[in-house]
Design brief:
The chain has 175 residues and is α/β, with parallel strands linked by helices. The protein is built from 5 helices and 10 strands, in the order E-E-H-H-E-H-E-E-H-E-H-E-E-E-E. A hairpin with a 6-residue loop joins strand 9 and strand 10. It is globular and about 40 Å long. Bound molecules: NADP nicotinamide-adenine-dinucleotide phosphate (NAP).
């Protein structure tokens, strides 16, 4: 399949969660660093096109500047009030979205979560590269990065320490 490079971007806890079980006591701004936010903005702008699930979109609630956003939902009509031309709400499959983007000349797309959408693309073998920001938190329980059986091999390409607290960004590419 001719498709853009799919780059998964996620912030995770040391124990592999993308969100704690109780977001009221530990909001995303409390456990992720400003350096990770800057990293996300830079990487997602480099890609220019973002794919995410409707639940993740609802935590953002708006278009992100200088990026096209494809929001996966079984009910696009629920989002009819959003008129920003950079936002598309779609019930197309992952493969259909990527094929459309490829036809439009898109070479790179950032996969921005959440767990459902990360898992969907991973299980279909569509993820080429991952940037995982490991924040120095342990949650014990929460929303896992991936769910379901899935065995794929990746190699570590780069590692970077973003701040004095020890926030790390690990870059992996599919072998
Ligand atoms: N730490 C991080 O980097 C990071 C990144 C992103 C998100 N998050 C967190 O992750 C959580 C959300 O993750 P999540 O797994 O619950 O939700 P999600 O992946 O953002 O969205 C799931 C929703 O997408 C729609 N969907 C799923 N598969 C679809 C398909 N094949 N076709 C069309 N629509 C589909 C469904 O909603 P409909 O009812 O609309 O069909 C589904 O409920 C939030 O707490 C968020 O803060 C963390």
């Amino acid at each position: 399949m001719n498709k853009p490079e799919v780059i998964l971007i996620a912030a995770i806890s040391i124990d592999g969660f993308i969100a704690p079980a109780d977001k009221k006591t530990l909001s995303s701004t409390a456990w992720t660093s400003k350096e990770d936010l800057h990293f996300f903005v830079k990487k997602s702008k480099e890609a220019g096109t973002l794919i995410m699930g409707s639940k993740t979109f609802e935590t953002i609630g708006k278009a992100l500047p200088e990026r096209k956003m494809f929001v996966m939902t079984s009910q696009p009509e629920r989002y009819a009030s959003y008129e920003d031309p950079s936002l598309s709400f779609t019930k197309a499959t992952a493969e259909e979205i990527l094929a459309d983007l490829s036809n439009q000349g898109c070479e790179k797309v950032a996969l921005c979560g959440g767990s459902h959408i990360y898992s969907l693309f991973m299980q279909k073998g569509l993820v080429d590269r991952m940037f995982l920001t490991i924040e120095p938190f342990v949650f014990g329980e929460g929303i896992k990065l991936f769910s379901g059986k899935n065995e794929q091999k990746f190699e570590l390409i780069s590692q970077e320490k973003l701040n004095e607290n020890g926030t790390l960004v690990l870059e992996y590419a599919k072998i």
